[in-house]
Amino acid sequence: MIRGGVVMLCLLAAARALAQEPVKLELTTLRKEGFVGERIDLVFRLHYDADDLARSAVQPFRTALDLPLQWTIPLLSDLPARVEAPGPADGSGPTLVVNGERVTASEPSVEVVNGHEYRVVAFERRVYFEVAGEFRIPGGQVEFSRAGRFEDDLIHGRRPVDVQRRRVEAPDLVLQIQDLPTAGRPADFSGAIGLFDLAVESEARDLVVGETFQVVLVLAGFGNLDQIAPPHLDAPPGFRILGALGGTGENRRAFRYDFVATRATRDGLPPLEVVVFEPDPPARYRRLRSLRLPIVVLGDSQVSAAQGTASSDLALTRSESRYSRRTWPLPWLWSALLAPWLALAAWCGLHRLRKRWEKDPKTRRVETARRGLEQALDHASERQAETLGDYLAARLECAAPAVVDPMLDRRLEASGLDPALAREAAGRFQTLVAARYGAAGAAVDPGTTRDLLARLEAAWAGR
């Protein structure tokens, strides 16, 4: 009688253990309301009791898994949206099967519910809806097998007994997506949707009228950064924008703009503005404003005035020589008389050459770009692609972003280069750009680029 009661209690305990699932699924997101074009992160979470699975779960394949589960995450291919999966997990977590493939999850987090410890692994999907409406997102399911007990077999080893196939499903998630509001939308809206900060950077400080310089506009934060083109900027007074080139990045993007100074100023580059849409309640359009850049632009007359000091010093030297000539021997006297005039003639010649160089923005731009490329090569800098692009753009008299062109070799050939050299220069630039953005096998040897620069300089000088 007592033995029968003990057996019954054991059976009830086993049944209760089987009835309580060791896993739970959920699908979460920050907000259930969103906008067309907004980045919406869907997080598929698997909560599991590691001790329970270790005791009762049955391995589904010959190769053992840390989590003997088969998890099905919806592909979401039927949604009118662009769906992206973030990069692979860091590989430090447990192995399991997801959508039919063996994967290694990230290190699980730990949560405690009613004094019981669970571990959580998660996979994300990023969704950018293209139309408005109500959309039901399936939460996915997980399948696994549990055994009431295990028996040791001399031939087959540990064998499960009373195996039950289990399936756990996550509730669906309903999203309400609406169009961006048209009321109050500025005409210069950039298309950026999210929460961002704006900053501008530039290495330029002292310029002359007609000189080209680069400004880097940085948007950082959470949103659809990888979906937008370089924001349209209104050129501030005294400056003109030649073109823009977009960068890459997940939570930070840097856009490069080519500016040219059109008039003298000491007030710097005025603040730049970018309009974004912030979807968090209360949703609104917001105009981000950068700080002023401390840039000084000098006109030709100001440059000449700054150089006038050298002329005054030279005149003083000539005047002093007249009063001391009686004490000098005759050969030294003639040398003293002629030296100031020779120095003056040399200075005038150099001054004319400098003025001609200053008045020729193209020559100045080419020299500046060449020096920048040589410095990048001397230091084996990662900016080889950018500086070579700046140099080619200066030679072609175009904005730097314009050299990112499949017809670059023909444009270089039209500028006077030999066809073979033009193809080599275009190919080298494409190789450096590919290496800059992580292409495998792209060679970035500075010596190759330095040799190419020397041959380009010789070819353009001999035109």
Give a quick set of tags describing it.
single chain, 463 residues, alpha+beta, Immunoglobulin-like, 4 domains, 5-stranded antiparallel sheet, 21 strands, elongated, disordered N terminus
Outline the structure in words.
The strands form five sheets. The protein has a six-stranded mixed sheet with strand order 17-18-16-14-19-20, with no helix packed on it. The longest helix is centred in the last third of the chain and has 29 residues. The termini are far apart. The chain folds into four domains: 159 residues; 110 residues, Sandwich (Immunoglobulin-like), CATH 2.60.40; 59 residues; 101 residues, no CATH class. It has 463 residues and is of the alpha+beta class. Helix content is 32%, strand content 32%. It is elongated. Helix 3 runs antiparallel to helix 4, helix 6 runs antiparallel to helix 8 and helix 8 runs antiparallel to helix 9.
Summarize, please.
With 463 residues, this protein is an alpha+beta fold. 32% of the residues lie in helices and 32% in strands.
| Ends distance | 111 Å
Number of domains: 4
**Rg measurement, Å:** 35 Å
- Helical run tally: 9
Residue-averaged pLDDT, rounded?
A: 80
Strand adjacency order, main sheet: 17-18-16-14-19-20
Number of strands: 21
The low-confidence parts are: 1-19, 303-328
Query: How does the helix and strand content classify structurally?
Result: alpha+beta
Q: What shape does the CA trace take?
A: elongated
Give the arrangement of secondary structure elements.
Blueprint: H1 2-19, E1 23-28, E2 33-35, E3 39-48, H2 50-56, E4 70-72, E5 81-84, E6 95-98, E7 101-104, E8 109-113, E9 116-129, E10 133-137, E11 141-153, E12 157-169, E13 173-178, E14 189-201, E15 206-208, E16 212-223, E17 239-245, E18 252-261, E19 273-278, E20 284-289, E21 296-298, H3 300-323, H4 330-358, H5 361-378, H6 384-396, H7 408-414, H8 419-436, H9 446-461
Parallel strand pairs: 2-13, 4-6, 14-19, 15-21
Antiparallel strand pairs: 1-3, 3-9, 4-11, 5-9, 6-7, 8-9, 10-13, 11-12, 14-16, 16-18, 17-18, 19-20
